[in-house]
Amino acid sequence: MVPLWWYIVLGVVLFVIGAAGVLLRRNILVVLMSLELLLNSVNINFIAFGRYHADFRGQIFAIFVIAITAAEVAVALGILVALVRNKSTLKIDDVTVMKG
Known about the structure:
Blueprint: H1 4-24, H2 28-52, H3 57-87
Helix pairs in contact: 1-2, 2-3
């Protein structure tokens, strides 16, 4: 059986990579993928702690996070398609204000 701290280390590494991607990158698609890494690292920790305590609540929370992530991706991709049609760029610095 794999020890709990391996899962925690994996979650921390994924979280740090995702946070670095959100803070350092300027492409909106890369920022969205980094947010996915952040949420997946949280899912790993939820499931690991749920398994460690022999409780299903960690898996239930992970399923909710996955559902919220799917909704976030659908909305974000719709916004990105509209953004590319109007501005023809995906760089965060070029798109500072979204006006209706």
